[in-house]
Amino acid sequence: MTKSTLSEFTDFTGRTVVVTGASGVVGEGIVRRFAEAGANVIIHYRSDESKASALTSEIRESGAQADMIQADVSQKKEVEALFEEVGGESGSIDILINNAGNYPMSSIMEMDEEEWDRVINANLRSTFLCTQAVIPYMRQGNGGAIVNIASIEAQSPTPMHSHYCAAKSAVLMFTRTSANELGEYGIRCNAVLPGLIWREGIEQQWPEGVEGWCKAAPLTRLGQSLDVANACLFLSSDAASWISGAELRVDGGVMSNRVF
User: Pick from 15, 53, 61, 113: CA 20 to 30 A from residue 3's CA?
Assistant: First the structure.
């Protein structure tokens, strides 16, 4: 039975949430928001152990539950081991946030196939493998919610990002087909499409890009990691219990501006 009161919609007490790529800026925001909502948060990381460890300690000190797990989520055996470890302890996994990915810049003319494969694997293959691996644990718990972090670049191509745009566009179609196939098991699948998200030093590293974005965005600012996290929280909550296969842009309105 879905929850019915407003306060219950944001109460994730007793639910287990796996966040891949949790040591990055967006992943960290997602972890913090779900922890605030009372969830047991699984902090996945691939290489930044120190960041994941610090985040895990901070979440625990706040009184919430958190554990960290290392894995290369583009590798099937490591993905299976990750979900076996999590599911073996809790008995079920309620929410999966497929956030892991990377986005190097390279032109089509200069890109080699190894870089293409790395980007496709990190952004698309990982989403497939984690989704496939979590299904038995969600079915054991009578359903669940999967949120795939895509990008507005899935709908608006960006120079030097052909591999990333292609991967994120594929993530959108994978989200829709997953919603179609998994709905009968009570598993909802949706996508969040972030725009430009603030990170430390971005104003100094790319001043013209930040200025151009803020001029083009009707809401006149960069996004924050918690903007993405709030969208994930909503799509994972019972407030979205009849939403599946949806694509939610979180971009300050930029995609409404055809000039940008």
Answer: 61
